[in-house]
UniProtKB/TrEMBL annotation, chain A:
Gene3D superfamilies: NADH:ubiquinone/plastoquinone oxidoreductase, chain 3 (1.20.58.1610). It catalyses: a quinone + NADH + 5 H(+)(in) = a quinol + NAD(+) + 4 H(+)(out). GO terms for cellular component: NADH dehydrogenase complex; plasma membrane. NDH-1 shuttles electrons from NADH, via FMN and iron-sulfur (Fe-S) centers, to quinones in the respiratory chain. The immediate electron acceptor for the enzyme in this species is believed to be a menaquinone. Couples the redox reaction to proton translocation (for every two electrons transferred, four hydrogen ions are translocated across the cytoplasmic membrane), and thus conserves the redox energy in a proton gradient. It is a multi-pass membrane protein. It comes from the Bacteria. Its EC number is 7.1.1.-. Belongs to the complex I subunit 3 family. This is NADH-quinone oxidoreductase subunit A.
TrEMBL record, chain B:
NDH-1 shuttles electrons from NADH, via FMN and iron-sulfur (Fe-S) centers, to quinones in the respiratory chain. The immediate electron acceptor for the enzyme in this species is believed to be a menaquinone. Couples the redox reaction to proton translocation (for every two electrons transferred, four hydrogen ions are translocated across the cytoplasmic membrane), and thus conserves the redox energy in a proton gradient. One of its GO terms (cellular component) is endomembrane system. The gene is nuoN_1. Its main location: membrane. Keywords: Cell membrane, Membrane, NAD, Quinone, Translocase, Transmembrane, Transmembrane helix, Transport. NDH-1 is composed of 14 different subunits. Subunits NuoA, H, J, K, L, M, N constitute the membrane sector of the complex. Belongs to the complex I subunit 2 family. This is NADH-quinone oxidoreductase subunit N. It comes from the Bacteria. It is found in: Cell membrane; Endomembrane system; Membrane. It comes from Actinocatenispora rupis. Residues 161-456 form the NADH:quinone oxidoreductase/Mrp antiporter transmembrane domain. GO terms for molecular function: NADH dehydrogenase (quinone) (non-electrogenic) activity; NADH dehydrogenase (ubiquinone) activity; quinone binding.
TrEMBL record, chain C:
It comes from Actinocatenispora rupis. It is found in: Endomembrane system; Membrane. It is a multi-pass membrane protein. This is NADH-quinone oxidoreductase subunit M. NCBIfam families: NDH_I_M (TIGR01972). Belongs to the complex I subunit 4 family. Residues 1-18 form the signal peptide. The keyword Transcription regulation does not apply. InterPro entries: NADH_Q_OxRdtase_chainM/4, NADH_UbQ_OxRdtase, ND/Mrp_TM. PANTHER family: NADH-UBIQUINONE OXIDOREDUCTASE CHAIN 4 (PTHR43507:SF1). The chain crosses the membrane at residues 28-48, 132-148, 154-174, 186-211, 223-242, 263-283, 295-316, 323-344, 350-371, 392-410, 430-450, 478-501. It holds the Pfam family Proton_antipo_M. Its main location: membrane. The keyword Transport does not apply.
Amino acid sequence: MSGYLGSYATLGILLVVGVVLFGAAFAGNRLLRPHRPDPGKLTTYESGVDPVGGDWAQAEIRYYVFAYLYVLFAVESVFLFPWALVFARPGFGTTTLVEMAVFVAVLLLGLLYAWRKGVLRWT
Amino acid sequence: MNPVLAADITLPHINYGAIAPILILLGMACVGVLAEAFLPRTLRYPVQVLVSLVAQVAGLATIIGLALSNYAKKPTLTAGDALAVDGPGLFLQGAVLVLGIVATLLIAERSVERGGAFVAQAAVTAGSEADAEQARRQPSQTEIFPLSLFALGGMMLFVSANDLLTMFVALEVFSLPLYLMCALARRRRLLSQEAAVKYFLLGAFSSAFFVYGIAMLYGFAGSVKFHDIAVAAISSGKSDLLMFIGLAMLAIGLLFKAAAVPFHVWTPDVYQGAPTPVTALMASCTKVAAFGGILRIFYVAFLDSRWDWRPVIGVIAVLTMVIGAILAVTQTDIKRLLAYSSIANAGYVLTGVLAMQKDGISSSLFYLVTYGFTVLAAFGLVTLVRDQDGEATHLSRWAGLGRKAPVLAGVFTFLMLSFAGIPLTSGFTGKFAVFSAALGGGQTTLVIFGVLSSVLLAFPYLRVVVLMYLQEPAADAPTVAVPGALTSAALAIGAIVTLLLGVWPSVLLDVANSAAQFVG
Amino acid sequence: MTVLLVATLAVPALGALAAALLPDRTGRVVGTVAAALAFLASVALAFGREPGGTGAIRPWHQLDVPWAPALDLRFHLGVDGISWPLVVLTTLLTLLCCGYTVWRVPVPGVDRPGVDPGGPAEEARPDDRGRYLVALLLAIEVGILGVFESLDLVLFFVFFEIVLLPMYAVIAVWGGPRRRAAATKFVLYTLFGSVLLLAGVFVVVAGAGTADLVTLTQRGGAGLGHGTQVVAFALLALAFAVKSPLWPLHTWLPDAHTEAPTVGSVILAGVLLKMGTYGLLRVAVGTVPGGARTLAPLLGVLATAAILIGALVCLRQTELKRLIAYSSVGHMGFVLLGIATLSATGFQAALVGNIAHGLLTGLLFFLAGALKDRAHTGELDRLGGLREVAPGLAGLLAFAAIGSLGLPGLAGFWGELFTVYAAVRHGGPLWMVLAVLAAVGGALAAAYFLRLLRRVTHGPAVNAVVGLRPTALAGAELVAWSPLVLLALAVGLAPSLVLALTAAPVHALVTAVTP
């Protein structure tokens, strides 16, 4: 395991072990489990109730759009907390404030764009 | 208030002057978004074109100013060492912008296809009545301009990023707009959407690899800064294994963007499906950015461990050159042909990169620019050959173009000769530069494969030339659109630079040489 | 005088541009004027010569400017006694071909879907593309002159490549019925050769650290390991063997020569092949003599094989241009054998052989073209009795054929005589055998050329020849051919014309490459 190609050998062994482990798990599973095929088992699982209708349904795109907007602003607030802790300290001051204002302004720009494009209207 | 939480935070000093080009691009992109939101529809196009070009020209001027004011000689780190303003960084930023300006000219063209090359409403179901209607009548949407500005800004950030996190953020900043832009072709909507989805999904996977690599390297070095990783590689007592796994993951993410085999499978489909001006942007600017990142990571963070990973990347370079060239021979679609040739060209740049010495950097930088200009002009010409379904990209449709449009065929022939590496074109000087650098760096095997594959690659190009001149055009042969002022300018710039750098390479090589020193 | 050196390249280049841009007839005339100026410039190079330096190559005039310092590329041109005769031959043949094209433009071949290429449906369609032919000829001239004049390895390669595509276009557009296949074959072989050349150049430059031919020749391979030298010489020699061509890499040549238009064949045989032999002498032998010494016997054997095989194939040929093409293989075999002896006599023989072959085979192709234009066939079976119908044409053909077979007193003789002599002088059983075989090959050349003359000029006039029109030679033809006839006579009667020029540089070269 030493020498020029030693680390490659380690990597190779790791890969081999990974493949073997994967194969062993599935093979063991295959050997131990009972095997009784049934068409019912291939249907969609819906809490034990027989599924109704097709499984190809269109989802309303607006859910996603709203979810995106929410996640965006929720994640950005993560940056606001540490900033809130330090911006009043000596050495930070106005620069910090302006920089955060720019940051929030860019976010607002996105919101503004979404509003102008009619994304915020539900109907 | 928990004093421990805030204790470690210090205000990083930001040298706004040094990163002004990036700020200009991203700021102007925001202006573009505002214009998109508030201007009436008819005004948007001229304003967006203006904003886009002004932003890039201003950014370029700032970069030249920075380069002249000795930032290249006295490189500097800023923003808490997250960004490096050094010779290669400035050169690559400049290259991205110069190529970006030419690509923007292609993107802004509206006279070749009525209303421009982009769709009016991307969300309309492909193939529906409304889709056919908008393809005929409505002018392109103009979001493409701020999107391209964001992409270019992200690329500039990417090539100057000096730690892995910044690099990842930049990667996403330039990737996401590109995914969107791929989906915006006016014609062949399904192909375009397929391209976008494919690019997005595979791109997301490659990003995941990249992030995983960052995690590994952080575990190894305890830092994401390139300098710290380089130090840790020499002195750390930890197992190198962590570092090599991390490097492998990073390399996968980067080589994906650079379209190296075996991470290239997206390239032909995306290049074919995306609107041709966007393909031109991807083939030139994205390639510059991706190799900018590769150069910086290899030369700054992993220079001292090069003896261990160079053989692996060397194998990838050989595969890229050979497989790209072989598959290019079999193509029947001009855009796919150019896609495979761009894969093979990625291999040539990698050859230069792997020289792992100063002229490796300068020759790679030089090659990226020469290739960028040539490929921009080539894709620009592809937009001109049209029939009633839009661009006629099947090779058989190009038969006899030499008779119908001698000027176009002449320019295209010249570009093909440059791709084939015939002397007195930039293709020759570029290949000569990277191969000499690689020989100097002891990479003889790579050069042998490079020379062999470049001959192989000459055949598909020459086949196109033969097709254009020596075959009779079919009865329903496509027409050649008269290029508008913008496309003409882009084509002229691309062809002239290809000739200039072929005859007088020193112009750019000297600049690249003086820029080829990374700040560590 | 440096101006003249640049002029030999710049004038044809500008002429090519002008010819392509001007209207047809004007373009052709302007192109011819440019070719004439280039010829004058190349002749004038011989005046005021002052052997520069004391190195292995002492150029009369040279120009050495940096081209791309970052890549260590230099634009280093120069001309000396070895290259000057070839330079003048090139400018002369190009001038004659351009002038010939002013008089008669070959009809470009036409491809139509569904029409058998070369079939009767392919009617002559005169058009205005003659100026492009002149432009391409001039572009080829720039490349060939560049090859002969460059004193930098990379520059040499650059010019070597420039020739490829215009020549391809000349064959592919103005060629005969099977031009497409011939042109493709030409490109395939030549591209293959270019790769090997580039690889060889890389090996030499990377090993020696310089691309300057003067320095490299002066060093005589010092600083390069023997293994490297052998590899480099093998690569370079293979590349030049494709171009020369050396058996068994010659198969592109008969097709290309047969299908090319008359002027294309003349340039191909007259000067293009010389790029290979010149490159072998100046680049391969000059820069890696160690490798040359190791591989010279192999080269000699192959060259002798080329002489014999070329001659034997010629004995069975039934087509005029094909026969002349195969005779080139044999003649170039003599030249290569001369170089393979690695002696001053051998080099001199090779250089004289080059010039003689350029003059006589150029003339032969002109005559064959004229004959085919008149009789509409090149099949030996369908020709015959030319002497009765067109005595002028028949006489010239006889002159060229006899000169080419090596009759003493004509140009072809000296190259072959000296080659055999050099091989004998080299000594050793192998070289003695090679000398004898080469001499036999020379005798066979006499056999097939006399067979050619018997079939074409003698005997009763057959149909194709009886209908020959016009029987007299046109003025333009006389103007184009007479310089070749006169020079062939001059070189034959006074070979010292060439030998005196080449003696000093060949001596310097031999001194440098001998350990």
